[in-house]
Specification:
Elements (H helix, E strand, L loop, with lengths): L107 E3 L8 E2 L4 E2 L20 E2 L6 H9 L3 E2 L13 E3 L19 E19 L2 E14 L5 E3 L3 E7 L5 E11 L2 E11 L7 E7 L8 H4 L2 E8 L2 E8 L9 E4 L19 E12 L3 E6 L2 E15 L3 E3 L4 E5 L3 E9 L5 E7 L5 E5 L14 E3 L3 E3 L2 E9 L1
Parallel strand pairs: 1-16, 4-5, 6-16
Antiparallel strand pairs: 2-3, 7-8, 7-15, 8-9, 8-10, 9-11, 10-11, 11-12, 12-13, 14-15, 17-19, 17-27, 18-19, 19-20, 19-21, 20-22, 21-22, 22-23, 23-24, 25-27, 26-27
């Protein structure tokens, strides 16, 4: 793996969090901050009244918006065919004269990275390992071409003849996937579209979200893949169906699997003249640099002008360059996922990253670390898709015990219907980063940590820990984590 490249409105004081767990079930959100961020990157987040940098733009009227072994085969030549796409491998020798006709019904599979292919010149088929990812097979694949190198013919499923074509050059780089292809995600990160994510551009462009990326943090190799975190420091929303701004403090998580497949997750707050919107997104791509498919799950007030976001089917494209991330959000309600299909698979033995809270219970053992978390003013998104959220920005803090360091400015406690759900990032003194999500109801908080497997804090990846309820701390709240017994 390789390294790559404020909330406005009336805010409540952090000291109010001392009452967090005495709130009745009348529908008011808890005001305490649960400290413990879920997987992914910290971003800077300011106080609502003064230090917030995301002044909302006005929303216009009208309709509101928004693993089997890897095989590498060439671009699909007909709309009814499916092709195999895989990550980078070694270059393959030239294919032979003639090979069998490929099957049009076999979907592309992106699986584990292959090794060095071997050629069989009499059949025109390569060996069982994947060829280079950068090439595209030629015309049809019925005949093994005269000069297929590397990615022109990869893996047992595709073979030299199946890849076919006149010539193709092996090498590394983004996997070439047709813009019209349906991407079928691995069941472990299906993003709610197990049957396939259709091409967003087949739908109707609703609006564009442009995020300002202020920093990137390399978490490193974790139990789920290579993790990277991007800080969101604001942004804009433009388009026919939604306009506004993006608040600071958003979290953008990237996960690169060993076979090159990318998985994405993010949490952001959108600010419009018709109210704020919570959005948590899930996404995938066959490789870094290839077309990503992002599925945003919007939570807007059910009785406001943005309520259409709660019921639509949305898929976005994703582009990162020069300190910005551009998400073109399409309404795909009328689009059917069809051919060609690209199937993504996790490498064998790799644990899926979690989407839900950690629910493992137990009793408190020895102390592990204590956090003192500083907070911004809170605000609410009431009567939204899944209920009401109370959002309390996390603006920094310190840690002590077995993890000594600071807490990054970014993330928040995104409380839902009184249950806490805090996402943030620890920055220990040794230069590592640890992703945290701490969630649960009342005193039953359970953290989830993600740290580098080869780092000093790899012990946190066992997920064998419990959290205290938030107490009053310097400038915010104090939370202690314990070994679970």
């Amino acid at each position: 793996m390789h390294a790559r490249r404020n909330f406005p409105r009336t805010m409540r004081k952090a000291n109010d969090f001392a009452h967090a767990f005495s709130v009745t079930a009348s529908g008011l959100m808890s005001r305490s901050v649960l400290v413990g961020v879920a997987a992914l990157l910290g971003a800077s987040c300011g106080n609502d009244s003064d230090s917030q940098s995301s002044a909302a733009s006005t929303t216009t009227g009208g309709a509101p918006t928004d693993s089997a072994p890897t095989s590498i085969s060439p671009s699909v030549s007909t709309s009814s065919s499916s092709s195999s796409v895989g990550p980078a491998g070694s270059s393959a020798p030239t294919g032979g004269a003639t090979g069998p006709t490929p099957s049009a019904s076999t979907p592309t599979t992106v699986g584990p990275t292959g090794g060095t292919p071997s050629a069989n010149p009499s059949t025109g088929q390569t060996g069982t390992s994947a060829g280079g990812a950068g090439a595209t097979g030629g015309a049809g694949g019925a005949t093994g071409g005269s000069g297929g190198d590397g990615a022109a013919a990869g893996g047992a499923a595709a073979g030299g003849a199946a890849a076919g074509g006149a010539s193709g050059t092996g090498g590394s780089g983004p996997v070439s996937v047709s813009e019209d292809a349906t991407i079928v995600p691995d069941p472990g990160w299906a993003c709610g579209m197990e049957e396939g994510i259709p091409s967003p551009t087949k739908g109707e462009l609703a609006f564009t979200i442009t995020l300002d990326i202020s920093a990137e943090h390399e978490v490193g190799n974790t139990p789920y893949g290579y993790r990277r975190l991007l800080d969101v420091s604001g942004g804009t929303i433009t388009g026919d169906r939604l306009q506004g701004s993006v608040m600071t403090g958003g979290l953008e998580y990237e996960l690169e699997l060993s076979n090159g497949v990318m998985e994405y997750q993010s949490i952001n707050i959108l600010d419009t003249s018709n109210g704020r919107i919570f959005v948590r997104s899930c996404g995938v791509a066959p490789s870094e640099g290839s077309m990503a498919r992002i599925i945003p799950d919007f939570e807007a007030s059910t009785d406001g002008a943005n309520s259409f976001l709660n019921t639509g089917t949305w898929v976005a494209t994703r582009e990162v360059s020069n300190g910005t991330m551009k998400l073109d959000v399409y309404d795909v309600s009328g689009v059917t996922a069809g051919e060609p299909r690209v199937v993504l698979e996790k490498p064998d033995g790799v644990e899926p990253q979690p989407w839900e809270c950690n629910m493992t219970t137990g009793s408190q053992g020895p102390e592990v670390l204590t956090e003192n978390v500083t907070l911004g003013g809170s605000f609410s998104i009431n009567n939204a898709k899944y209920g009401s959220r109370n959002v309390i920005p996390i603006t920094g803090g310190t840690t002590s015990g077995r993890v000594t360091g600071k807490i990054l400015d970014g993330g928040a406690d995104y409380q839902l219907n009184g249950s806490l759900d805090a996402w943030y990032t620890l920055a220990p003194d040794n230069g590592e980063f640890i992703l945290v999500r701490n969630c649960g109801a009342g005193g039953g908080l359970i953290p989830w940590f993600e740290a580098a497997v080869d780092g000093e804090f790899a012990f946190l990846n066992t997920q064998a820990y419990l959290s205290s309820p938030p107490g009053v701390g310097g400038g915010g709240v104090s939370i202690t984590f314990y070994e679970r017994q």
